[in-house]
């Protein structure tokens, strides 16, 4: 990890914070991915619809606006790199400019696209407590037998971390896990 100063916004409505970045050696369409730690450091509010980040500064509000053309280029590049890695079924448009320079493309359902995401392989049902068909999970079927046995043993050894009902969440205030429908 390295620490670098990051400046958002344009003068005079800008802010700089010292942030930690994890450097990874992988192919990506992005130079950097800013996550929750960055947003929290800037006390930022994001609007994906407006492609804008707003953050408090002394005497006002700073903002960083996305470059829509660059965003579309990154999206197309990410799809191309995904296809190179064998993800041929990535949904999306490769020609991002066909709607015009200033428009943001919206996803359009494809006629042959499945209604639901399907697993990449058949799944095997595993009883975490042998004989208890109510406490099961699923794992992939393409694992080698010895790896599958290790995974099943690990899951069974740690079966106490799974919760099946709200009553299994011991020590948690029911107010945190209870959903109430409010009548206005």
UniProtKB/TrEMBL annotation:
Biased composition (Basic and acidic residues): 95-113
Region (Disordered): 91-114
Protein name, UniProt field: Reverse transcriptase domain-containing protein
